Amino acid sequence: MNFGRGPSVVLNVGGTRYSFSREVLKDFPLRRVSRLHGCLSEQDVLEVCDDYDRERNEYFFDRHSEAFGFIMLYVRHGHLRFVPHMCELSFYNEMIYWGLEGSHLDYCCQRRLDDRMSETCTYYTAEEPNGGPEGKGRRPPGAEGGKWLERMRRTFEEPTSSVAAQVLATVSILFVIVSMVVLCASTLPEWRAPENRSVEEQSRYTAESVREPSGIIEAICIGWFTAECIVRFIVSKNKCEFVRRPLNIIDLLAITPYYISVLMTVFTGENSQLQRAGVTLRVLRMMRIFWVIKLARHFIGLQTLGLTLKRCYREMVMLLVFICVAMAIFSALSQLLENGLDLGTKNKDYASIPAACWWVIISMTTVGYGDMCPITVPGRILGGICVVSGIVLLALPITFIYHSFVQCYHELKFRSARYSRSLSAEFLN
């Protein structure tokens, strides 16, 4: 320790004193306490604690003494649990102050904390150090210059943050709906090019379709989406983080096929590979279906689905493993019972194990198209076991996914409500 005198230091937490040697503070498990070892002046000390007594070499922290006592039990024994008769969120706030996280809690207490956060919709995030929309008035000096940039960022990223953001979100939703209607209408027989067109006629039709009303509407929609994506990229804080976000990748996948198809139409001309290019153009045009996912920016339900899949990827992998294992077992047995044994009747639908896998998957998921079904008594018994096993195997991981879905929904709903409060304040002003 580079400040203070004496072989030991005293920590006074809410009136309870703890004495430590200087060397212990260097590698202390609590980050706030270990920071005292590197303090060079009294000013540095006061940035860590609330007060300092030079004569006693005592550091005062105005925090909950009983909560710190339980935190010290974690330092000594490695187990961290909640203080009886103390709010879980208050104790979690004490943990964050001393440099601990929710993962340091015992498993039972972690579940209590998650349930408590879900009930009260309270979440501690590092994205808003000023306390969200309510902390706008506590900006540090010199941050006023980027206030308009922050407002632009929230206008494009948070649809409920302001009136302008809601108007922009509504216009974007209308463009998505219009583009989807045009995409669906373009597949009608009256809109499609006849199949018996020659290669040259198909090329001319593709080039002229850009000048048709549907092509004009499509170009306008693409122009809007492109301008929106460019503006969001310009006002983003971290450009690399912006490119890595899933929704931004989806925007890129939805926009680039249009420009690629236009370039291919312009440069292909009378090329011998025109027919192959025509197939590629149809595939690229169908990639516009990704525009539907753009609605996730404006609807909590779709955001909840994406966040749940992101957090429950282990459960999803476990679900797929269950299905694959059961499919391998039941497909082999069904192929053996229906076609592999030397019986009088053989079911040709089960001629191979890959063919039987289709029957297993639609049976385990209780879809049952009826295109394949066992005809032997052992095969029907196996089919009943397959259906029951599918219900059980699918129900086991879905419970964890459901709880994560509820928690993600509360989290996103709280975030939306927080920005709605700032919207209400804007209306009052």
List the helices and strands and how they pair.
Layout: E1 8-13, E2 16-21, H1 22-26, H2 31-34, H3 42-46, E3 51-53, E4 58-61, H4 65-77, H5 88-98, H6 107-120, H7 147-157, H8 163-185, H9 199-209, H10 213-235, H11 239-244, H12 246-268, H13 274-286, H14 300-311, H15 313-340, H16 353-364, H17 377-428
Parallel strand pairs: 1-4
Antiparallel strand pairs: 1-2, 3-4
Question: What does this 3D model show about the protein?
Answer:
- The protein is mainly alpha-helical and 429 residues long.
- Helix content is 62%, strand content 4%.
- The chain folds into three domains: 119 residues, 2-Layer Sandwich (Potassium Channel Kv1.1, Chain A), CATH 3.30.710.10; 141 residues, Up-down Bundle (Four Helix Bundle (Hemerythrin (Met), subunit A)); 101 residues, Helix Hairpins (Orthogonal Bundle).
- It is built from 17 helices and four strands.
- The chain has a four-stranded mixed beta sheet with strand order 2-1-4-3.
- A hairpin with a 2-residue loop joins β1 and β2.
- The radius of gyration is 31 Å and the shape is flat.
- The C terminus is likely disordered.
